Amino acid sequence: MASSSSSSSSNMKRYHVFPSFHGPDVRRTFLSHLHNRFSSYGITVFKDQEMERGHTIGHELVQAIRESRVSVVLLSKNYATSSWCLDELVEILKCKESPGHFVLTVFYDIDPSHVRKQSGGFGEAFERTCERKTEEVKQRWKKALTDVAEIAGEHSINWNDEGEMIEKIVISVSSRLNVTRSKDFEGMVGMEAHLRKLDSLLCLECDEVKMIGIWGPAGIGKTTIARALYNQLSSDFRLKCFMGNLKGSFRSTMGVDDYDSNLSLQNQLLSKILNQRDMRVHDIGAIKEWLQDQRVLIILDDVDDLEQLEVLAKEPSWFGSGSRIIVTSEDKRILKAHEINDIYPVGFLSKEEALAIFCLSAFKKTSPSDGFEELAKKVAKLCGNLPLGLRLVGSSLRGQTKIEWELQLYTLETCLDIKIEDVLRVGYDKLLKKHQALFLHIACFFNNEDVDHVTSMLAESNLDVKNGLNILVDKSLVHISTDGKIVMHYLLQKLGRQEVVKQSNEPGKRQFLVEAQDVVNVLANGTGTESVIGISFDMSKTGDLVISRRAFERMRNLQFLRVRDPDANVSLCTLDGVEFLPRLEDMEFLPRLRLLNWESYPGTSLPVPFRSEFLVELHMPSSKLEKLWEGIQPLVHLKKCTSLVKFPSSILNLYKLKTLRMWGCKKLQVVPTNTNSTSLEKFDTNHSSRLRSFPDISRNIKNLSIVGPLSVWSHPKRYEEVIGRQLKKVTHVPSSVRKLDLSSSDIETIPEYVRGLLRLQTLIIENCTKIISVEGLPSSLKSLHADNCVSLERVKFPFPIEDPIRELMFSNCLRLNEIARRVIMNRRLAKYVCLPGKQVPAEFTHKATSNSITISPGTFSDASSSRFKACLLLSPIKDNALLHVTCYLRSKEGILINQMNYLSLTSDQPPQIRTEHLFIFRGDLLHQQTKHLEVDMNTTEIVFEFTCSDNHKIVECGVRIFKKEYEKRAKKECWLEDDQCNIRYQTDKAEAVEVSQVENVESTKQTGGFLSGLRKLGLGMKKKTKALL
């Protein structure tokens, strides 16, 4: 046991430096200056001033030597007069043999040879010290002096400036100490990727002063990333400082004016970076005066006020060349206002990363313990993939039983952890009242809704919606998705809903009602008040719903009503009697509604006194409506109307109506004629199966969706989008159509009328299980989506000079023949292609069985005009997963050269990938905005890194590099690689030909005819060519 304890003690390092010296020679001069410089670098030095010195060193001193990482031996004229010093030296050299202990020597006014040979005055002093010592002790000391004199070090006689010598010693020690950086951030989930991306922004090889922003919502991990970055970079900077938790630091002290607050902040920074505890600054220019000639690393964490940046890092000229100032903040506007344009946005974790972080806190490993797998996934989901929540909740569950976990799940579903709430609510509290109100509207009613839709809904409010949304985005309280939806994080949404609950203990006196039980109580008891402006709930969580006759009587300000009924077995019911309604039609209904969204509405019409003048959206799918109302209602604000059964002709005369949806109107057969809603742009009759004809209702309709056996099309006009899954019988479609969706129809070939749609750009034939051949396509087509066409065998494209095809999706088309596969893969300008495949084709000359490829220097002759083509082999997955591929191009040093995203948006439900598939895409090596990067593509290795979302796994990847060259005689682009030109043509039997360097072209008639055609076009060809069918 004693041995184990001793070993453990010796491995613990309490000090950075142990100095061995003769006090009278150096303590008040050289050593005191050395201590000060060590201190300014944050280097901890063992000090023995209070230790009583005897003839032999004691246990405490031996321990200090063993617990130090570096020993600095200061050899001076009288060093050998002290047996204490000589014993220290022996112990130091013993420790030198152990790993992790470094010895540095300083010969202070002494010749190293005198130390090595114990000669001169140094030798005489040594002999006097050895008197009355045993021969064994003397020999031990002699060997120590001889050995230490052989260790490289600094000689004071070689330096004219003692200060410079001290600086070099300190830098040497600092460098040695930082060889092994802190391991606090090693293995931290996702950290390596964050640091790699930040490295390209920092551009450490540049001498200019750079300010970098790290931006993201509270709890996302900005501070952790900043600390890891500080740990990684600190050894490269002599002066560095981490100013943590600045949030609320400005003007936080009552009675202190702005000037004193500014001085206090500057004093904190300078005291930290210069390691001067008692430092005092007297004017705002102090930081510039001290640091304008110094290369510094400063991290300003959690900045929430622009004034903090003005005080601590007003402009780059305050700091010396090569300085890096890194600022973390939840507010992007602060960073932009300070002209910090290099901003790293910290995104939310993937499901896998979130689970790993949660498990590290809950189980101290990256995966769940046996039996806790499903529980861990549920808890991680409830934490919303937010690192702060994952760590706090994980720690609270560590060591708990499964029963205790299940009990905790209910608490997590109903309320926020208090520590998480404290962090999240800071951003909300700093908002203006009107922006807080907008935040609550989104949290309770409009999360994951289209920006345009929310703007329309709130147009008449005083919420300053457009500007307010920008502020919420910049403050990381919401973000706008790629498809234009407002997205608020789950935990922030919960915070907002908790704020509404705090408005009153009585649900009927709150702004929004979203909890099912609260809604049931308010509607059954008629306790709603004028405070209520929105009701949204899911009837599947309530069972039967009883509505009082006076349910809405006092809710005069109700604007938004949304009733969801996803479970067809749950029905709305009413009770007979004085207090309860026998029919919904008899209710005194909602007077100021802007949104009415009621799934499976059980009434045959809306209440008679229904007031519609404020209505912006009417959405009532799968209802029992036979008519909306009697007579004509004013609908001056209506912009979206969905799911009607008896179609009122007055609707089509609305001058603001843009979208009309009639989903599930199973009794609708005829749309009234002779109407003209000039504003109408979208018309959708999805699942209106009895519709037999379609009139000319607007000359401006762009998007038409008809799902039913439509066979009569009167007055075709300027439609741009048509969705009709049973248009097989239609012989004519308006020529203006740009998008045609025939998904899930029983077509076996492409209908004849499609060839004549010369403006058609997108054709969707997903889930057409009977289709065998795709041909007869118009030359204007840019996008073809044929996922799950399981019988498809043949594909043919037209042969225009300018090939317009950009997107080709053939997921799960397993019967494609080889010619069809080649035709699909060889579309010259296709942005991306997806089809079944088992290996990356041979044309991709750079391959790797991973998700990254390194390209050797010299591959790129002209990077600024070069392009690439990449191929990923994806493993099969069981889930319906969105295919979102990101391609990163980086230099070997980590500088980001380009980043490209490829998102396949086809149907509402992405297809399952049942077998291995190939995803092929193209792009430019350099983005227009990155061509100024100082990266020599001819001498630097370039790394292609690929990532996939939603569980897609990359089995293999390949890359092919092209150079761009313009052929004047042909007046068209060719992409050349190694002087080979890929040119496609159409013959009687094949669709595409690749021309490359091979012999015996003349032996084929078709090839000869093809070459003759090329000569007429003016294309010069080499003698060695071959046509590959």
Automatic annotation (TrEMBL):
SMART domains: AAA (SM00382), TIR (SM00255). One of its GO terms (biological process) is signal transduction. InterPro entries: AAA+_ATPase, Apaf_helical, Disease_R_plants, Leu-rich_rpt_3, LRR_dom_sf, NB-ARC, P-loop_NTPase, TIR_dom. Residues 13-177 form the TIR domain. Keywords: Hydrolase, Leucine-rich repeat, NAD, Plant defense, Repeat. One of its GO terms (molecular function) is ADP binding. PROSITE patterns: TIR. Its EC number is 3.2.2.6. It catalyses: NAD(+) + H2O = ADP-D-ribose + nicotinamide + H(+). This is ADP-ribosyl cyclase/cyclic ADP-ribose hydrolase. It comes from the Eukaryota.
